[in-house]
Amino acid sequence: MRADRLIDLVTLLRRHERLSATDLARRLGVSKRTVLRDLDDLSASGVPVYAEHGRLGGFSLLPGYRPETAGLTEGESTVLFVPGGEPAADALGRGAEFRSARRKLEAVLSDNAARGVGDLADWLLIAPEGWGEPVEPPALLPRLAAACARHTVLDVEYRARGERGRLRRVRPLGLVLGGRTWYLVALKDDTGEQRTYRVDRVRAIADSGREFDPPGITLREAWERARTDMREQKDYRVILRATSDVAPIVSYVVSTVGRVTSMATLADGRQEITAHCDRLEAAAAMLAGVGERAEIVDPPALIEAVLDVSRHNLARYGGA
Asked: Which residues form the HTH deoR-type domain (predicted)?
């Protein structure tokens, strides 16, 4: 929206002592002509924008200028404290509220503080997706968030790995973004047992029409309990060897299905990687893609699992 762009334009000028029209256009993702028109409109509305000509010229705001802004709405006040900041707010469908709240707060900062915010934004970026492609948040995430906030008992259609979808009635405790994956931590409604569900495997939810009293445990405590239980269920020690140039790649691949606990240099220059995985099948699927770049030393069951994956692929694609 143009109104938001004008606010962003003022914010950029407060963050930086002077910016050219070309630089403003690049930062705002619009044409230079659009920026010049917006600057004229800001000036006409009373915003003290002035231009300095010459090789080092550009546009600036009169020192000490602070734009008038409305107070925070209730929603904006709440979303500012979402753990994970803007990426999490976007995933929950509240990114616009988050950015609006941040703009309002920045508007009341002093010139030096506003420039400090600009400096921070220039050198710090949080990229939860890492090197991979950005992951679209699960479509049901905002509805699950609303149910967690209202303490509503839910009927959840959930499809676990290798199973057909089935209905579960749960009391949702909260949502956790673990790495790139969203999880729902909940209690089974009939027994009170704690369970953790991947949100991307939730197929449908329905409000049961009933609310519950939150238990005497925080979400962080529930999540740590779930992590501990998972580690204690199965813990396979995996030892791999790889040349030093590909060891970081092998280590990263293994870390997607377990946790790397050590890397040591052997006498022949290779790296020995020790990791712990809770599911050999998942580790085998990932390591099959690494091919000859890694040698599996232990356990033998993992070697057999990788061979099974390779036999399956050969049977399926061998005649292609």
From this structure: 2-57
